[in-house]
Amino acid sequence: METETATRWLTDAEQCAWRTHLDVSRLLMHQLEKDLQPFGLTNNDYEILVNLSESDDHRMRMSDLATATLQSKSRLSHQITRMEAAGLVVRVNCESDRRGLYAVLTDEGLETMRKVAPHHVASVRRHFIDMLAPEDLAALRASLTPVADHLRDTRGKA
Description:
By secondary structure, the protein is mostly helical. It has helices at 12-36, 43-53, 62-68, 73-85, 107-127, 134-155, and strands spanning 59-61, 89-93, 101-105. It has a three-stranded antiparallel beta sheet. Strand 2 (89-93) and strand 3 form a beta hairpin. Helix 1 (12-36) packs across helix 5 and helix 3 packs across helix 4 (73-85). It is globular and about 55 Å long. The two termini are 24 Å apart.
């Protein structure tokens, strides 16, 4: 027989912190997405472009890219299809694994990154970084690092 454990309800302070985190996460991602729209990009597009632009030879295995962007392989495949149509990426067969595919940043994709990145950084700065004092940024990073580490560790176990 299962032993019931008492629910540890959130205190008022915990509830306030949690809801503030949710509000900031949603509102910030909405604003960053809005600021990418003039360039014809979504947050997902930009995240893929960043991953590819920072990888060796501007390419990643599709499975690794799905992991890096927290997308299912199916969802990433649809996303890459849209980005291929826009000329930002191409899929290339993996020579060592016939079933494997790489997503590869095109010259147009790299140029798009070079054009959009300064605007995106300015948006991040305007809507997040500049809203916090340097010591608050350091405290935020220190506070959130254990949560991020825990979630990365937990992700591989589910």
